[in-house]
Amino acid sequence: MKPAKSSSPKTKANTKAKNTAKADAKSDDILLQMRNIHIKGKSDETWIDIINGVDLELHRGEVLGLIGESGAGKSTLGLAAMGFCRDGCKITEGSISFDGMDLMQLDKNALRELRGRRIAYVAQSAAASFNPSHKLLDQFCEAPLIHNVMSRNKASKYAVDLYNRMNLPFPDVFGLRYPHEVSGGQLQRAMTAMALSCRPDLIIFDEPTTALDVTTQIEVLAAIKDIVKEFNTAAIYISHDLAVVAQMADRIKVLLKGDEVEQAPTEVMLKSPTEDYTKSLWAVREYTRKEQPAVKNETPIISIKGVTAGYHSSVDVLRDVSFDIHKRRTVAVVGESGSGKSTTARVVTGLLPPRIGTVEYQGEALPSSYQARSREQLRHIQMIYQMADTALNPKLRIRDLIARPARMYLGLTGKALDDRVRDLLRMIEMEPDQFIDRLPSELSGGQKQRIGIARAIAAEPTMIICDEVTSALDQLVAEGILKLLDRLQSELDLSYMFITHDLATVRAIADEVVVMKDGLVVEQGIKSKMFKPPHHPYTELLLGSVPEMDPKWLDKLLDSRGKDNLGDAAIAKMNDEGIS
Q1: Model's pTM, two decimal places?
Q2: Which one of 155, 236, 273, 395 has the fewest CB atoms closer than 10 angstroms to its CB?
Q3: In what order do the strands lie in the sheet with 330-334?
Q4: 276-298 pLDDT tens trace
Q5: CA distance 530 to 507
Q6: Domains of the chain by range and CATH?
Q7: Is 305 exposed, middle or buried (0-12, 13-18, 19+ CB in 10 A)?
Q8: Rounded to whole angstroms, how far apart are CA atoms 230 and 222?
Q9: Cβ contact 317:310 at 8 Å
Q10: Which candidate, 267, 184, 219, places its Cα nearest to that of 561?
Q11: Other CB atoms within 10 Å distance of the CB of residue 70
């Protein structure tokens, strides 16, 4: 059934005027108006529909949230607000008016002058968007200089001012660092500052906090919210995280496969969505697997004992880390960026030999380096990575990606290997004839992650490390991945070490929880006890930083912690990451 169209943008604007305190003379000033937008994309010489007649209206100083699952058209519509389409896409119908200018009629030079100066874009992955060979300050100053907005000296001073407003450490010299020398949260704030370098009228935020841990996300959201309000900047905030959008948006528009499902002021949308699809997005947050019974007197599949490790002889990233993973159990390892979660995984897989301590497999110590481990020892511990885009070789077809571990570890060849690949595709709920000869580029994000799962179980492992496997996925797709992992665990007797910063995911899938901070295990136990007070202060900070489906949640949190104090642990982390 095709989703029902929402009321006209004008009607929604009137509703907003009656229901929000922000409706004043300025909010009646329309900045962006998109009418009947149709966008098509080319696939195998065939043009397919991506956006189907969507309308969008935005007022100065207003934030519109765009939500929907992967493939809904959120990013495509957001980029179209700049008069831009990705390669292989085209706007086939409709009109786009920005501050009275028809973007569909402007030539390339006029559009180039507009983008960056009056309309800015903040991408999901700051690490992939900055030039690694240039300092942050140089990249900040580029747009103001190109658009003749201000001199290099004034741009540099403005950068320091924005770095300070965004609570970046040592703002006077922060810009002298290269992108790889700052944390992910700091880099995302630096990108927001760069988007504001020309004081634009509109910013498109495309999933700016998806890959961030909860405490870093709070810092970034608070910085974005304050700066948008202070500069009266309009924004389109694209996300699949409903709770995050609720903190940022005045209105929410829901998309599904290029169609508008519904639109309403944020509070109205959260309390009483009208369409079944929107209600299903709300319900996804309620998924929880059945907690497994506690294990008694059983040899763990993996036992990490007193591990201290680091990347340089003088710096220990992990300090005396110890915990066990038992058969058919899911142990969630949680903590902020830099807490040591992924480093622990590297020690378990043998990629990083510990300086002190051991890793045992079923009671026997494993060689510290993967190079010294037998093929059988390697087979039993497999890994699923966060970014399926970079984890799958783009030149290999699906059959070859899945076949490699089955051939390497199990010695399968010929028809037996082909049959095994097809069986694995069925296990991950992908039809073999439809997908086996595709390239990764021909799959969606969720499908790529399923291939990563199939590749991991192809070796018939005992334990799988899941490293942020759902953080880049929308909530509906993520729920499907969690349910798949749950089913495979039961069918194949698997154990999981589930690395994540998403506590909603922990609630959904974990049996036990290990909380890490600064390379230490600060608290651990079964999930049911870990989510009940009293908590370790750091665990309390993490739990208190998970966004709720309440538009006032972020403001209440900042008020309780103090506008300039996002929590002692968060401040300590920012200082630790500071510039010496």
Answers
A1: 0.76
A2: 395
A3: 381-384, 463-467, 495-500, 330-334, 512-517, 520-526
A4: 888 877 665 667 777 777 677 78
A5: 10
A6: 9-284 (3.40.50.300), 302-532 (3.40.50.300)
A7: middle
A8: 12
A9: yes
A10: 219
A11: 17
